[in-house]
Design goal:
Elements lengths: L9 H14 L5 E6 L6 E5 L3 H7 L16 H13 L3 E10 L7 H7 L6 E8 L2 E10 L5 E7 L6
Parallel strand pairs: 3-4
Antiparallel strand pairs: 1-2, 1-3, 4-5, 5-6
Length: about 160
């Protein structure tokens, strides 16, 4: 696993953190958009995991407390609007409630739907943002990781 740099505008970072705290105890989720190679804004999207769970708890055993699913139509609308403004998808983010910012097996499987896109996981404990890690698909297999917060923590 190798570290890497991510260019994330302060306003976009603040929006990710605010969204993660505001939606606790459910996982926040959304997209980071910007010019090529950077993320200048965040788009918070509804976590539809609870609706999926209610509709079919066997197929979707997790709730929004410990899983996320973004509405596919909302994702498409956001990406089309971004493209019209000359922006690209820079990252997909979600929060973990009362857990660390690790990339779970389910997260890694979901990341496969976004080839080459950085995944950011934010940890929110008792409603307060604690730490965040960005994961980038590694050459070959697995993920490289970059600690976003706290910046001085050993990684």
């Amino acid at each position: 696993m190798r570290a890497f740099q991510i260019t994330l505008a302060p306003a976009a970072w603040a929006a990710l953190v605010a969204d993660a705290e505001a939606r606790y105890p459910r996982e926040a989720c959304g997209l980071g958009l910007g010019p090529p190679g950077a993320v200048s804004e965040a788009v918070a999207l509804e976590n539809v995991q609870d609706a999926l769970h209610r509709a079919d708890p066997v197929a979707h055993p997790r709730t929004a407390r410990d899983a996320f699913a973004m509405d596919e139509q909302a994702v498409l609308r956001s990406l089309l609007a971004a493209e019209a403004r000359g922006l690209e998808l820079g990252l997909v983010y979600h929060a973990h409630c009362d857990a660390g910012p690790h990339l779970s097996d389910l997260d890694a499987a979901s990341a496969a739907l976004w080839p080459g896109v950085i995944q950011v996981v934010l940890s929110v404990v008792e409603g307060v943002f604690r730490e965040a890690v960005a994961y980038r698909p590694a050459v070959g297999a697995g993920f490289d990781a970059a600690r976003l917060w706290p910046p001085d923590a050993a990684g």
